[in-house]
Amino acid sequence: MGTNLDHGKFTKMTTTFHTLLALDVFILFFSGYSLMFNDELWWMVLLMGGNTGVLAVHRLAGAGLLTLITFWMLMMVTTDTGRSNFREILPTKGDVLAFVQDIKFVLGRADERHPNARQFAGYKADEVPLLSYIGKGVVFIFATELTLLSISGVLIWSKTGVVSLFATKTAATAFVVFHGLLGVIMLMGIMFHIFEHSFHPAFFPVEVKAFIPRSEIPESHEHDDAETTGIERLTLSRHWGWATHVVGAFTVIGIVSVMVGSIFDEGFPVPADLAVGGGPTDLLLTIGINIGVFVLFLGMVLQMYGNLLRVRWERQLKTRRSRTATDGSGSRSDD
């Protein structure tokens, strides 16, 4: 069922990069938190071949992240599309006005949201910007976190280099603490990102814009009503209600458990003198941290499902085009 809500927004390179980056970040999370919470996530440590295997997986994924970041920076600088996309994500005066109007909207002092704040349903494709000010913020936050995580990760990887630079074990430990703290902050962002884009009622269970490039999605549909977006033709999935409540609760539990667990587990990423020790909460923390990992695993599964939808869509397009070509040649031969 076609609507104006499922028009493509990103190029094929962007959607491919999104898939590769997401997969790499998920592996970094799984291996990184297996190191950080090796007691609570003992089963993941075993699956990766013990501590040595976990370290190897984390470093390999880290090298993959550096490769992806370098590739993307080159594409942004050397290609016309990259440069135009970079201009699209730069903050504008309209974004500032959108933020102010959103605050007024929440407080009941504005009747509607600013056009630069539009993201999802209720508007036509040409009324929604490539990225709202919220989307731009997500891009800048993720880019900053990935850059800092990469730099601190490389310095931690080369421990002798850190010690020679700062000449103290405390400085080296500080980089580990900083790296872990960034990981916790990014975990919160990734979990909310999964929840926001997978459990929106108009797109549940995945938002296809992230997987199917705009070159493969029509910009208009037959018999479109010019005055509507087509949202009234959608039917809410019967699984959306309970799935949203369960995953929403799991997201909050996972984030809180990881943050609290950071205090218990030898000050990483919280300084050791703030550690409050173990106790009867260990079982609850173990359950909570594993729930957080489950949300990440769910995100990876949804990522794979989105790509399966893309493959299925490409096959349908190929079949449709071949039928059109066959029908066209048949009609010409009849003439």
Question: How is the topology of this model organized?
Answer:
Blueprint: H1 12-36, H2 42-47, H3 50-78, H4 80-89, H5 93-106, H6 133-157, H7 159-166, H8 169-198, H9 240-264, H10 282-334
Helix pairs in contact: 1-3, 1-10, 3-4, 3-6, 6-8, 8-9, 8-10, 9-10
GO cellular component, one term: plasma membrane
Domain Cytochrome b561 bacterial/Ni-hydrogenase: 10-211
Protein name: Cytochrome b subunit of formate dehydrogenase
Structural account:
The chain has 335 residues and is mostly helical. The protein has one domain (4-218, 230-323): Transmembrane di-heme cytochromes, Chain C (Fumarate Reductase Cytochrome B subunit, Up-down Bundle), CATH 1.20.950.20. The protein is 67% helix and 0% strand. The chain is built from ten helices and no strands. It has helices at 12-36, 42-47, 50-78, 80-89, 93-106, 133-157, 159-166, 169-198, 240-264, 282-334. Helix 1 runs antiparallel to helix 3 (50-78), helix 3 packs across helix 6 and helix 6 (133-157) runs antiparallel to helix 8. It starts with 11 loop residues before the first helix and ends with a helix. One of its GO terms (cellular component) is plasma membrane. This is Cytochrome b subunit of formate dehydrogenase. It is found in: Cell membrane.
Structure summary:
It is found in: Cell membrane. The protein has helices at about 10-35, 40-45, 50-80, 80-90, 95-105, 135-155, 160-165, 170-200, 240-265, 280-335. The protein has about 325 residues and is mostly helical.
Quickly list its features.
335 residues, mainly alpha, Fumarate Reductase Cytochrome B subunit, 10 helices, 67% helix, 0% strand
